[in-house]
Amino acid sequence: MKAHDGMYIDGAWRPAAGTDTIEVVNPVDEQVIGRVPAGTAEDVDAAVRAARAAFPAWAATTPAERAARLAALRDILVARKDEIAETVTAELGSPLPFSQAVHAGVPIAVAGSYAELAATYAFEERVGNSTVYQEPVGVVGAITPWNYPLHQIVAKVAPALAAGCTVVLKPAEDTPLTAQLFAETVAEAGIPAGVFNLVTGLGPVAGQALAEHPDVDLVSFTGSTAVGKRIGATAGAAVKRVALELGGKSANVILPSADLAKAVGVGVANVMSNSGQTCSAWTRMLVHSARYDEAVELAAAAAEKYGDRIGPVVSAKQQARVRSYIDKGVTEGARLVAGGPESPREQGYFVSPTVFADVTPEMTIAQEEIFGPVLSIIRYEDEADALRIANGTVYGLAGAVWAGDEAEAVAFARRLDTGQVDINGGRFNPLAPFGGYKQSGVGRELGSHGLSEYLQTKSLQF
Ligand code: NAD
After folding, report:
1. Catalytic residue positions, numbered
2. 96 neighbors 85 (Cβ within 8 angstroms)
3. If you measure from the C-alpha of residue 358 to the centroid of ligand 1, how many angstroms do you get, rounded to a whole number?
4. If you measure from the C-alpha of residue 125 to the centroid of ligand 1, how many angstroms do you get, rounded to a whole number?
5. CA of 440: how far to CAs of 225, 253, 280, in Å?
6. The ligand 1 atom nearest the CA atom of 143
7. 226: CA distance to ligand 1 center in Å?
8. Residue-wise pLDDT tens digits, 346-402
9. pLDDT classification of 308: cutoffs 50, 70, 90
10. Cα separation of 366 and 24, whole Å?
């Protein structure tokens, strides 16, 4: 795999300040496939200075100019989509067809959506005797996780650039090669030097330096709730804007009138997708007691079919963490009906697609984010019980509701404390706001809501 040995700062690949490197490992065969520099506070400072210097000129471009650069970026992502998919597969381990369709396909759609939005968004409006301008916030520090390596980057960088902000990105240490490839596409798209900058490195070093940098105006973070809380506290102390996309423990509520086979089949597929490493995955399936046994049987059969075809999880650390949650589920009395803690292969960070039945709402596996291919099936007695269980975690990122009648599902969904709900298997919409209630985060990504995160208002009175 191609790896740059420098940082992309001010439009060029520059040597890192230090000599430490990070090994990039292929989770399928555990082989080292590349090394990238482990950035320091010095690298972050150089990148922030470049972003600050580039800000006035980029902020002064017209929306049409920014739209043209974003359209060029989208076209280059399209031209290089096979390379993107291969790179994500090499460092994340996801099967190639999934990398092509989702890891390469979704960022292309999102970049395209911001090319259009930059051209059409109302950056100026009249309100009575005022003109209200939407102005870019400034220099953005973007910190991203590994689970959707390119999507998480594009979901921040594209709206930031559309708004007229400049960016310093610190991507996840497990998937830096995709981020380096993205920096190449930014350069090819003719986006001016300093508008986008990349510093690879470890979270507690480069990530923390970026989050704490006094000349960063907005920190946009996607990752765990534990790190998000620290970043939120740091930003709060500096009176700095912050956007947090954090963890989830979403409920898939199957109401008694639903098509059970479909709801269970789609529900299992949702949890196993990307080896369970999806923040919005419906990891708790809620089923009425009258249909519980049937649902468990269907889910176990569906999970068994996946075998090791779902791909590994990202790292040995993540594999150990997921397996320890499976052990905990067994210890706390849940019933394993598919999978288990044993790895299905000797080599690689694989975890068996796992389904637990007889999970009660207070068990650890029903409360904490596992971030692996593990589904918990929970029984409810009536709608009030289902609602209490569905809303009974600290998270509120996503969810699903299934019912025979769409209006019935919508009525239930409106009572869920969560940022987005799929009704009877509704499709992903790259223009719909994405983000969490409660400890799943602050702010929204995607579409016009995502763009407004990077804007601040100024009103002039006449
Ligand atoms: P993580 O919090 O460990 O790391 C995320 C990023 O933060 C990485 O780039 C990491 O290097 C950096 N980081 C770590 N410590 C830091 C610190 N002290 N200061 C600054 N930066 C630091 O999360 P992860 O394990 O990489 O990702 C998985 C988590 O991300 C899950 O909890 C998942 O739910 C969440 N996630 C949320 C969304 C969403 O949109 N809500 C999307 C994807 C993933």
Report:
1. 245, 279
2. yes
3. 31
4. 36
5. 7, 19, 10
6. 9
7. 9
8. 999 999 999 999 999 999 999 999 999 999 999 999 999 999 999 999 999 999 999
9. confident
10. 32
Nearest CA to ligand 1 atom 32: 224
User: Which pLDDT score is estimated for 52?
Assistant: 99
Query: Which atom from ligand 1 is nearest to the alpha carbon of 223?
Result: 30
Sign of CA dihedral 322, 324, 326, 329: negative
User: What pLDDT, on a 0 to 100 scale, did the predictor assign at position 195?
Assistant: 99
Q: Lay out the sheet containing 335-338: strands in order across.
A: 335-338, 354-359, 374-380, 284-288, 251-254, 399-402, 422-423
Domain architecture of the chain: domains with CATH: 6-246+439-461 (3.40.605.10), 251-429 (3.40.309.10)
Predicted confidence at residue 420, as pLDDT, reads: 97
Residue pLDDT, tens place only, 175-215: 999 999 999 999 999 999 999 999 999 999 999 999 999 99
CB 50 within 8 A of CB 115: no
Pocket test for ligand 1, best of 92, 154, 227 (most atoms within 8 A of CB): 227
Q: Directed axis angle between helix 63-79 and helix 105-120, to 10°? A: 160
Q: Which atom of ligand 1 is nearest to the CA of 211?
A: 20
**Backbone φ and ψ of 445, nearest 5°:** -115, 165
Amino acid at 375: L
Nearest-Å Rg of the Cα atoms of the chain is 22
Q: What is the mean pLDDT of residues 414-426?
A: 98
d(CA 92, ligand 1 centre) in Å: 15
Adjacent-strand bridge partners of 150: none
Q: What is the pLDDT of residues 64-87, one digit of tens each?
A: 999 999 999 999 999 999 999 999
Q: Which residue minimizes the CA distance to atom 31 of ligand 1?
A: 224
> Collapsing DSSP states into helix, strand and coil, what is residue 36?
strand
Give me ligand 1 centre to Cα 126, in Å: 39
pLDDT at 42: 98
332-360 b/e (C-beta count within 10 Å ≥ 16 → b): eebebbbbbbebbeeebbbbbbbbbbbbe
134-190 residue pLDDT tens: 999 999 999 999 999 999 999 999 999 999 999 999 999 999 999 999 999 999 999
Angle at 397 between CA 262 and CA 107, to 5 degrees: 80
At residue 307, the pLDDT reads: 84
CA–CA distance, 41 with 202 (Å, rounded to integer): 11
Task: Show the ligand 1 pocket: residues with CB < 6 angstroms.
Answer: 143-147, 170, 172-173, 203-204, 207-208, 211, 222-224, 227, 230-231, 245-248, 279, 369, 371, 397, 436, 440-441
